[in-house]
């Protein structure tokens, strides 16, 4: 609402810094506005790639230059720009909830080695539970060409190898370094765990055609600059491929979740059911999501816990008795057959008694 706009920053009462993202050059601050909790997110404007614009805002007589030291190879300066480049973009959320605060707080995270067993018993039940809640109708509307048509770059309606290449809604401006496209599959697949050799034609098509379409639309972008990958676990449980510009910044923030499309293809070529048999590392930054894994592993450990010392001793004693009994039975059968063959009827009873006593029989020749 227009009447809700603040006139200056003095009306915002600072409480604490929630998150300071040095990579994004963005800071989230908790405070109060008109007596109610609020969050202000400040971010610096990024530089343009346009040379003429850079000359206008930096390389001019108004830029103040301060010497900050040097070494044999480099000289360091601090430039103070006197135009709109110094502007800071501000987003104010007011009023806010606990969920809003949690979004900007630095989370505690856990890494999990997700075996096929853990996937089947913990992750998959969670996915099946969360999918109806996520309400993926917006994805299906994109796939059917019913929404975001202006953001759609390409549609392939083949039900087996088809996909839709669409601009990510987070990419608001046309800054190439922030470019982000998504390729949603026509097939109803949830994650890379669903992929096998039957999906290779689909994966190869997305990689080849997606690269060609993007580089054709943006001639300054080469195929080698594109990072094409899946996320696991994803934020949306309908299989999709990400296309972004590969930068050091993107690499730092995605390393723990990405699975390159080319690597996925090669893994399936080597082993058709690779993603059904492999252990994948996943990360959760929410305690309530991590807890089910911890409880499952603790329960499993309790089931296979070694027996007590008394149980082991008793078991060993029973095994010993069984062994002695079987030994004597075998001995009896052996000497019984021996006595029949040689027709020593007179010593049959004698052999039987010795076998029961556990003593060996020594035969001597008369």
UniProtKB/TrEMBL annotation:
Enzyme Commission number(s) from the entry: 3.6.1.59
A Pfam family hit: DcpS
SUPFAM superfamilies per record: HIT-like, mRNA decapping enzyme DcpS N-terminal domain
Molecular function in Gene Ontology: 5'-(N(7)-methyl 5'-triphosphoguanosine)-[mRNA] diphosphatase activity; RNA 7-methylguanosine cap binding
GO cellular component terms, semicolon-separated: nucleus; P-body
Superkingdom of origin organism: Eukaryota
Keyword ATP-binding: no
Positions of transmembrane segments: 335-359
Root EC class: hydrolase
Biological processes, Gene Ontology terms: deadenylation-dependent decapping of nuclear-transcribed mRNA
Catalytic activity: a 5'-end (N(7)-methyl 5'-triphosphoguanosine)-ribonucleoside in mRNA + H2O = N(7)-methyl-GMP + a 5'-end diphospho-ribonucleoside in mRNA + 2 H(+)
The entry's keywords: Membrane, Transmembrane, Transmembrane helix
Similarity remark: Belongs to the HIT family.
Protein name in UniProt: m7GpppX diphosphatase
